[in-house]
Amino acid sequence: MTKVRIGEYYARWCDKLTVFGGIPSSILLEESTSELDFISYVDDLFKAVAPGRRIIFGIADSTPPGAVFSRLVQLGERIAEECLLPIRAGGFRPVPLPEEKKENRAPAAAFQVPEEFVRVQQDVTAGDHIRIVKHIADLLETGADADDILNQAMLPSMEAIGERFKAGEVFIPEVLLSARAMNEATRLLEPHLSKGKRQVKGKILIGTVFGDLHDIGKNIVIIMLRGMGFEVEDAGINVPVKNFVNHVEDFRPDIVGLSALLTTTMPQMKKVIEALRENGLRQRVKVIVGGAPVNAKFAKDIGADGYAADAGEAANLAKRLMSD
After folding, report:
1. How many domains would you assign to the chain?
2. Alpha helices (H) along 115-238
3. Are residues 180 and 146 in the same domain?
4. pLDDT digits (tens, 9 = 90+) for 217-250
């Protein structure tokens, strides 16, 4: 296999894909690379790829035990100074789609909030967890109703983020930034919210089925659901069938979400549904499923009420099931 220098590889492919790597573990070791050679390599690397719109720096394999710590520090400083880090609220910009692809996508629906809440809407959209706290504190001082801030500004804004995620207009980093802003704002609002007035859209239990230890997708779905006003109980990973049954009996959710990333664990989803039926709980809850190997046909075959391919679809599916 012919080796290509990272700069040349980046020049060839940066407009088509995101490149990961660029830092061989050998340059971090004194016995294999002198200090001068290290500095020379790093200088050449940054000249070739900075500002690096589509490169994620990474060390090949893993950081060796004998890595010179000062070299790691130097790399971190160069990345912070010359690249697009850290990802700041409102600063993330996805690589634009070709015009022909843009034309085929329906834009997410726009929405309006009361004028006094516009800044909060903008903070959620930008994922600014610092400004949103200040703006909400200012609103509370002027006598604004906490429930109105939540229900008329924050929840619709997060719902719009979900729609834009589904439309391909924003991506996971932006969803996570908006969710962080929501969490900080909710923490400030919590003491001021009226329990009777708060609009909880429904209760959802979600977990990764037995034998499966994957949770990244599940966690993103939870963030999206909570941000849109659902009360969510996280059952965790590797959840035995009996535990799902116990959680349903104790938490009494409206919806149960089952996640699996392995084809070998997908049959557990059917076992959970059967166990809910055997324990007289199936009519009480809707069951939705998701995960990389799962599809709509599988969901129908096992008797689930719906399938979601991603977090945005999961949130929309949950809303639809709650309105049925």
Report:
1. 3
2. 118-126, 131-141, 146-149, 155-166, 172-189, 216-227
3. yes
4. 898 899 889 888 899 999 999 999 999 999 999 9
